[in-house]
Write a structure and sequence with these properties.
globular, 180 residues, alpha+beta, single chain
Length: 180
Amino acid sequence: MTVTQDGIGYPSLRGRWNGHAVKIDLVVDTLAMRQLPTLWMLVSVLRPLPVRTPIDITLRPRSSDIVSAGTTFAYEHTPPIGWPRDIRVSTPQPALPPLEVLGEFMELLERPTTKGLLIAPGGVRIVHELARGAVGQYRVVRRPKFAFAVEPGRVADLLQAAEDVADRVQNVGAHLGSTA
């Protein structure tokens, strides 16, 4: 594992998980109006996947989402029946593979700490809420202060979830002629 840090930002962790390159980034979101700042943890498993276009699944989408690639994507799609109601599925191209194959990951999408899932030709990224800013600090000086710990078990759980999604996409893509 290697830790890098650009400027005064949070460190970024890069390494390997079950033979695949992974990265973990922390992103502070202070743009949402009338909400406390949020500290997001972006957990990515980097490996080639048989998808033609990125698929961004964002839960509780807002116009100020800084951790969602889908805010710049041109096409929004209706999510499958049974998926969470407050969700946006978007792609940069009109084609959308059958999302029903991801039904087994509903538990991940229903977690209140999950903000997004990105499936792209280069891998899978899960956006996870790590912490909310301290109320007192933010009201007084308008600077976020987070009390958090990055527990190894939480990171392992998210890495495993991202790898499981990548495995499912890989398996379905092999059977569907790379349309997953």
